[in-house]
Structure formats: structure tokens, C-alpha cells
Amino acid sequence: MRKSTIWIWIMFWILAWGCTRTLPVSISSLQQISTNSNVQRTDLAHLCGDDASYAPDTSHLDHTPIKYLRVNVHFMNSSDSTKNYSGERAKRFAQRMIAEATKGLENNTKMWLPINNETPALPTRYRYQLSASQGFEPDSGVYCHYDDDLYWFVSRGKNRNNYSRNVIQKYGIGLDSIINLFIVPHHPDSVISETYSVTSAGIALGSAVKISGVFETRKDPWAFKGIINHEIGHVLGLRHTWNGNDGCDDTPRNINCWNNTQPPPCDTAASNNLMDYNANQSAWTPCQIGKIHKAMSREGSLPRKMLVKNWCTYDSGKTITIRDSVSWQGAKDLEGDLVIVTGGVLEVHCRVSIPPGGKIIVESGGKLILHDARLHNSCGQFWNGIILHQDKRSPGEVIYYGDAKIENVASSPEPISE
Ligand SMILES: [Zn+2]
What is the pTM of this model? Predict the structure, then answer.
């Protein structure tokens, strides 16, 4: 074949291929999207407020990115430095204590109650991160304070100060964005009283937590993982389960036994839930995890303010790929792109934040359905909109129903490339 003939053939195939391919379109507003489809409208917007909508989907764990709570630790001490850990010892103790509490978050255990329950032990999908305040980055996030007037803790009697916020107001650091843990020793006068028990006790006050009995009991940092997870559970909006309505059906009321020990009824009636008072405090139910993630997803909430804002930084390694039929009935804060591939159908019912510079890609044969959904960037920045592939044989589809919104798309998103 002559050279010129080969070139004609090459040009022919390039043109023929080009005619069957359609360039993807960039969608930055609702006006560019169809509302006509055979898809049945399912109005589930009310589910955005349900705890169950926020429990991690174990088939798609990456759809619930792990949230990191910023925490710091303050050791309150007397001016002679005899009542608490200090210096490097305090730092090491705090680091191990936070690491042990984090291990508890990583190892959710099966509920003991009700007996013979089938409640799944879902991954909690949140962790702690020892953090310095903005502007104080060289800090370790561990602080020692020496103050004879404020270092002590009394949980009952006329000098009771467990509910006092004085120590928090004076020594708190970054209270608007960090959970401040105060390690406060029992008052020496209490310790010498025979009727006062020097045990570990805690109390959550806003974004701060006071924990007593750490130094005096000389226990290993491991011993405080339950109390830390319990008190931070309160900061995140959880209530006690044994004695009242905590808003969850999977956390039965109980008689609050410390452990499964003789005599009856505590031989079998103990709970291991983190929001009871017990020796384990190691079990989170799906409802409790859902409550926590719902609170973390609620814009402006206190738990959300305590988080490392990983959704405000685009991470190419955090792409979520939809390959089957998925329905998002709770709000999401994505940390990378969202890609819906051939055969994938994603129905969105609530708020979804796409990171700055991130995008949604609907490939040929993929489908994105927005039911009263709000796509936006929750950091006051811009994302790059929806890229819809339109192969003629199997075009990608984007459809909306009801009060859907597309907000914060950059006015000149990145150019589309195949
Ligand atoms: Zn409590």
C-alpha cells in the first residue's frame, strides 16, 4: 500500500472515531440539568435528620471518611508540682492516653446487652488527634499549669467544683476548635477523708472535659481510655443509656452493673456500652455512631468545629468511585473527587460538600440523581462542578428533583480533558 493511501486510512478512522465520541460537558448549575426521566422520585429528605442515615455503610466504608477530633491535654498541678504529672512525663502520659483511647475507637466491640442481641459492631470512623492551637504549632498540645487555687477537683460537699468552668476559662486553649481535656487531681483534703473515694471521674462541659483520679491512682494510661471516650461521647452529643431515653433503640436501659460478676443480677446484666458506667466502655451501637456522625456533619455544630477540616483540602487519593446502586441519605463531606462509572447509580438526598478543586465525574452509563440535594463546598471555597460524559450509545445522566442546589462551582473550572 502506498504511503498516501495509508495516511488516508488513518485520517478516515480518526474522523469516524471522532463522530461516535462526544466531548464531555461541564455542569455548574441546575439549569443545565434535566428533570425529565423515568426514575421514580423518592422524597427522603427527612432522612437527612435521622441518626440511622449516618451509620457507616460497611459495603462502602470509604463513603464515610474518618473524622479526626482535635484534642489537647492540660495537667493541673499545685505550685510545688507534687500533685500531677509534669514536664516530659506529662507529655508522654498524655500521648499514650490519647493513643489508647484512639485504639478503643478503632476496636469497637459487640454489645453485651440485650442478651443474645444481633446489634452489629460498626467501625466508629472517628479518631483523636493531639493538636496545638493555630499559631502555636510547635506546641505538643500538652500543657502543664501550676495554680494552687484552681488545680483541684472536688465532686461533692460544700467545696464541690466539678461543674465549675473556672479552670477551663483560665487555661483553655483553642476552645472553639479543640476538645480540651483537663487532668485535675482530687483535692488533698478530700484524699485524706475516709469517706471520699479517690476514683477516676469525669465531666464534660461544652468542648472541655475534666478528668480526676489520673495521677493519684497511678494507673497506666490505658486505664483511662473508657472515661475519655465516654466524656468525649458527651461532647459529641451522646447521653447515658442505663437510666433514661438516650434517643437510641439499640442501647437498652440497664441496672448499671460495673461488670459481669457475682452475685446476681450483675452476673449477666452488665453493659459494655461506652455511655454506661462500667469496666469496659468499649461498645458503640450503630445509633450512637450515627448520632456522632450526624452531629459532625451539621454545619455550625460544636462537634464539627472540633474536627480537622480534611474536607477543605483536596486529596487525589480520596476519590470515591460508585460502581453499583447507592443512596446517600445523610450529609457527606468528601475529601476527593466523586466518580460514577458505567452501571453506577448514585441517589443523593442531602448535603454533599466537594473539596476545593474537586469534581464529580459521571462517566458514560453512570447516573447521578439529586433528590432535594445540595452540592456545595463547605469551606467557603470553590469546586469544579460536574463533568458529564455523553457517549451516544450510553450517555451518562444527571437528573434532579425538588429543591436541589448546586453551589460554589468555580466560574472557570479546569478545562475538560478526555
Ligand atoms: Zn457521663
Answer: 0.91
Among 263, 297, 331, the domain-final residue is: 297
**CA of 276 relative to ligand 1 center, distance in Å:** 7
Q: Which domain-ending residue is among 273, 297, 321?
A: 297
Cα of 229 to ligand 1 centre, how many Å? 10
Check whether the bond before 114 is cis (ω within 30° of 0): yes
Q: Are residues 325 and 396 in the same domain?
A: yes
Beta strand spans in 50-148 (E): 67-77, 126-130, 142-146
Whole-number Å distance, alpha carbon 244 to ligand 1 midpoint, is 12
Domain holding 252, by residue range, is 52-57+61-297
pLDDT tens-place string over residues 137-195: 567 899 999 999 999 888 878 888 888 999 999 999 999 999 999 999 998 887 777 77
Residue 414 lies in a domain: no
Q: Are residues 189 and 227 in the same domain?
A: yes
Q: Distance of CA 71 to CAs 132, 157, 175, 396, Å? A: 8, 31, 10, 44
User: 192 and 99, same structural domain?
Assistant: yes
Give per-residue pLDDT as tens, 251-294: 999 988 999 888 888 888 899 999 999 999 999 999 999 999 99
* pLDDT tens profile 6-47: 666 655 555 455 445 678 889 998 888 877 555 566 666 678
Q: How far is the CA of 203 from the centre of ligand 1 (A)?
A: 7
Tell me the C-alpha distance between 395 and 284, whole Å.
Answer: 43
196 is written with which cell numbers? 471520699
Q: What's the 240 CA to ligand 1 centre distance in angstroms? A: 6
For ligand 1, the distance from its centroid to the CA atom of residue 275, given in whole angstroms, is 6
